[in-house]
Amino acid sequence: MSEAPGKSKRSPRKATAKKATPTKNTKKATATKSTAAAKKATTAARKATEATKPTKPAAAKSTAKPAAATSTGKPAKPALKVTQPESRLSLVRRARRINRELAEVYPYAHPELDFENPFQLLVATVLSAQTTDLRVNQTTPRLFAAYPTPEDLAAANPEEVEELIRPTGFFRAKTKSIMGLAAALRDRHGGEVPGRLEDLVKLPGVGRKTANVVLGNAFGVPGITVDTHFGRLVRRWKWTDSEDPEKIEALVCDIFPKSDWTMLSHRIIFHGRRICHARKPACGACPIAHLCPAYGEGETDPEKAQKLLKYEKGGLPGQRLKPPPDYPGQPAPPLAAG
Question: 309 pLDDT exceeds 50?
Fold first, then answer.
């Protein structure tokens, strides 16, 4: 018996449909494989990109050797690193901290000219231009023995004065200045050194620096002494970049209280002569290197820096023939022995 026509047509279509239509499990497996392949491709691309990127250079290490110990025997602190402009408040704080630490290093700081009265200090300070205090101290004993008062010096023979002060250099110009100021003291001030800045600067050969030395050390009137050492150090410490002594004086006066002015001057000048030299500062032996933006301008090796120290810091004689009782160094030799 033959099959019905309808049945024989439907059966082949159902069988074909089952072969062509994938199951749900097959779809999921295909999708999973596609996603995994995509992830692998993405990861490979990312690694390839990272491999081609330039790496950041490692931070450069400082080659400067920190001082093992300063001239005071204390361990040195890291040098100051200035990364951005310093504010006014920060500068004032750092400057005052430098002063405090210098006070610990030089508790015996003092004027390094030998004198017994204001007249001797005034003359010695004028003679100290373009020479050392040591040379002046070796020269003035004979000068003051011959001419102990302004009246005596004003009436002296210029040639004899020139011969006495010849070791200080520029002796002709200096003779004119000290004899002129002696005459002015005799004629205008009754033979006495005035105790006011405005009167002192009117004397021959006397400027603000000399006047402040005399006022601060003979009269107890506070003042800032801006000599070559003072100017050099405040510029290294970035207190100012000015070369003008009067501008430097005004700026420093504005940073410190008046009571600090005279001793601050002594400490800075002491430090400039003993450690922070003009040509080759002894950075590796400096007790305030951690506060100094100029650290590294000089010798940073502690042992080599130690050999650069002068006067009592280097175990050598000081500049005064008659130093104060608390001075820890040796007195300077007289002229004949020097």
Answer: yes
CA distance 274 to 282: 9
Confirm whether residue 283 is marked as ligand binding. Answer: yes
Residue 276 labeled ligand binder = yes
* Spatial contact of 180 and 150, defined as CB atoms under 8 Å apart: no
- Could you give the dihedral angle defined by the CA atoms of residues 120, 175, 111 and 113, in that order, rounded to the nearest 10 degrees? -80
Poorest-confidence range of 29-33, 152-156, 235-239, 260-264?
29-33
**DSSP type of residue 71:** T
With 80 as the cut, is the pLDDT of residue 56 above it? no
**Stretch 235-257: mean pLDDT, rounded?**
97
pLDDT of amino acid 68 = 46
CA distance 133 to 321: 10
* DSSP assignments along 217-268, one per residue: HHS--------HHHHHHHHHTTS-----HHHHHHHHHHHS-GGGHHHHHHHH
Q: Residue 58 has what pLDDT?
A: 43
Q: Judge whether 227 counts as a catalytic residue.
A: yes
pLDDT-above-70 percentage for the chain = 75
Contacts of 319 (CB under 8 A, 6+ apart): 112, 132, 133, 134, 137, 273, 311, 332
Cβ contact 311:317 at 8 Å: yes
Q: Stretch 257-269: mean pLDDT, rounded? A: 98
292 among annotated binding-site residues: yes
Q: Is 39 a catalytic residue?
A: no
Q: How many CA atoms lie within 13 A of 189 on its CB side?
A: 19
- List, in order of start, the domains of the chain with CATH numbers: 71-105+225-332 (1.10.1670.10), 111-221 (1.10.340.30)
Amino acid at 191: G
Better-scored residue on pLDDT, 77 or 307: 307
Residue 87, by phi and psi: left (phi above 0), alpha (psi -120 to 50) or beta? beta
Radius of gyration of the chain (CA): 40
Q: Which of 114, 133, 174, 209 is catalytic?
A: 209
Q: Which of 114, 133, 174, 227 is catalytic?
A: 227
